[in-house]
Amino acid sequence: MSTIALIVAAGRGTRALSGKAGQGLPPNDTTPKQYRMLAGQSVLARAIAPFTAHPKIDRVIVVIHPDDGDEYARHTLEHPKVGEPVMGGATRAESVLNGLRAAAAFSPENILIHDAARPFIGKDVISRVINALDVHQAAVPTLPAVDAMRRVGTDGILADVVDREGIRRAQTPQGFRFTTLLPIMEAAAANATLPSLSDEAQAIITAGQSVASVEGDPMNFKVTIPEDFTMAERLLAQPDIRTGQGYDVHAFGDGDHVVLCGIKIPHGRGLSGHSDADVGLHTITDALLGAVAEGDIGRHFPPSDPQWKGMDSAVFLKRAVEIVSERGYAISNIDLTLICEEPKVTPHAPAMINRVAELCGLDPSRVSIKATTSERLGFTGRREGIAATAVATVIGKT
Questions:
Q1: What is the pLDDT of residues 67-91, one digit of tens each?
Q2: How many angstroms from the chain centroid is the CA of residue 375?
Q3: Fewer CB within 10 Å of terminal CB in the chain, N or C?
Q4: What is the CA radius of gyration of the chain?
Q5: Cα–chain-centroid distance for residue 50?
Q6: How far, in whole angstroms, is CA 119 from its chain's centroid?
Q7: Of 280, 286, 389, the residue nearest 343 (C-alpha)
Q8: Given 3.40.50.980, 3.30.1330.50, 3.30.1130.10, 3.50.50.60, which CATH number is that of 241-396?
Q9: Is pTM beyond 0.90 here?
Q10: Is a pLDDT exceeding 60 seen at residue 92?
Q11: How many CB atoms lie within 10 A of CB 252?
């Protein structure tokens, strides 16, 4: 079943031009919103791309304003599915009809009509609309009205409450059987009722036919006012992700237990160190400090300082967590590997994970602690001590 996507991009976007500089719009910039840039790509190109990538879309037709040929050439998406643009009319309905007439040359079975100002349309929504056309003559993605609804008078004063029951917010793409929509739109043009149509779904309903509702997507919002551009930029902003690694070793010495990741494990020997020699927490501390370029544990807690002698290493890790936060980052996950022939780590791993998660303010699912041997090679293979490596990922707070 052939399907064409019709992208309506002929509007002027005057509401997007109404804000002050600094609200998503440079001063004196009158560029129509569909050609504005979002993270290096125009709004229009972002609106087109999901349709060219969808396996059930055979062709994309873009309707543009007659004055926008140069803008379109600079900012559109070059793709084999995208043909030459079609010139729009004085109203949205006229632009859509011009696009439908151009699509008729390809005899599609379905036509999807999408606003160029919706750059975050997802594959799932497109699929739901197309699939609904197997059963219905028309389908529109919608979302429930979750906020309280009130009428507002022309004086800006709140009036009566509008019952939300059955109220849905309509999105695009709106989908139609092509042979159903084109005659209805042509008839509206002949009867001079075309300018009064709010959208193509209204044309279908006015003609006495039904339109199915499919689930929309909150991300599929329409960029309308300057603040919408700010929100869109935030959605597209690349997160500041950093990774740090840690490595530490401690030799066995006198004692009847070792402390690993805050858990006391009975053992015939202890670990030697200035503090409690918790090689696991030391390594994680180094990884976190490294992720935010804050040196290593020795820089913040020098072994030459007597105040740290015998110290619970949880103090070091807590301070590293604070430093990460102070630098504007949040911990995403931690992965620690303990390297030793003894003691057996696996039975104690769940308790270690819970303790590290507690100290770092993480869900335990974001902490991995595992153990391996060195196949009896090196100092760990000779049971002379324990080594550890860790990787920590942090993400910049927004």
A1: 999 999 988 778 999 999 999 999 9
A2: 43
A3: C
A4: 31
A5: 15
A6: 13
A7: 280
A8: 3.30.1330.50
A9: no
A10: yes
A11: 20
